[in-house]
User: Fold these one by one.
Assistant:
Number 1:
Amino acid sequence: MTLPSAAETRLSGNALSAYNVCLGLEKIAKDRTEKERIQARVLGYLIIHAPSPTATSELLNVIHSCSNDHDKLFKLGEAFINYYIRPFKKSKGHTPASSDHPSRPSFDEVTKKILLGKIIEAPKNHTEAKRLALIRDGFRCVATGMYDSKILKTPNFEQPTPRNQPMVHTECAHIVPQSTYFNVSTNADKRDYSASVLAVLKRFGYDVDNLNGEKVHSLFNVMTMDRNAHDAFDRLNLWFQATQTKDCYITKTSSDWYYPLLKKKITFQSTPDLPAPSPELLALHAACATVAHLSGAGAYIDELDEDTDSLPVLTHDGQSSEILNNAIIRSLGSLPPSNCVGDGNDAGVGGQLQPLSEHFRHLLPNQNPIPPV
């Protein structure tokens, strides 16, 4: 598993220059750890599969700004794993309870550099979002087309043809995870972590204010999915690739044999009162899933989760530091127990989000940044 050659990418200009930096970093990482090889690949694949022109500009700027310092580039790759890929990826194992640890994640300094936005606690109940999404999506899973069993109780329902078409239990799937806004009122660490995640999304071109508080349950951030498709989507094993046609997407998976019941192409329905899922949010998720799959970051996170769950006790002698850091990051990005959700009245701390180069200022050498493309 390696980055494609520069010629295969068809990149040019600043993008090609930044990509060559990533190729050089990957070459250096051959004699280092698998984690560092993945960090190098994450940076390279992010350039190729950036979710927006704004994201491309930010990526090129920050990669060029620390192109002469390999350790800083590795830490940059780690930052994108922790604050972009990890938040979108559902934990493979169970979620450990939060606890106090004598050592903090190595990237805490970066987190402290990020200015907090106006993060508002999200309500845990999203029954109304589920109901409206069901109506908009025609009481079907958007990925498979199978009907939700609730449609049998719907007035004037006409039986589908053929009549033996299976029915399923569907769930309300969030594109940007709702847990980003959970427990931020009562947990300072979670608040800082969520601010870090939102800072990346902001600099990738998305207005994070549209997701604040209860708005994380808005129709543009939710879809109707059966349990299996929902689980695959949340684990970054399923994503939707945009086409030239509005609201039309190609279904992509991390494996060719994954979910044979998935439709090859889907078209989201909408009305003026029931908007379709946001193309920008779907692009953020698709880029994240693609990079996680191609770079090996997704599989690496799964392995860390399995190691975390199999260790009865995490030692503090350094031998399980990577697993310890993973446990902390995972707990910060997970859904909280029902009794851990705040009252939703905390409006947060105001502040303008700075470019990625500002968030990673302590990683960068003293030099003028490369202008964005």
Number 2:
Amino acid sequence: MTFVKDNKMWLIKDVSVILKSKGEFFWKGFIIGIGVTFLFH
């Protein structure tokens, strides 16, 4: 029981880390995109 619970906790941690890194990547790309748009208009 505890083994399965620990695995679920690790899975949740992995997913949250992946989402966080993807979110940071998305926001950096979004900000760069806005900057480029303003530069060229």
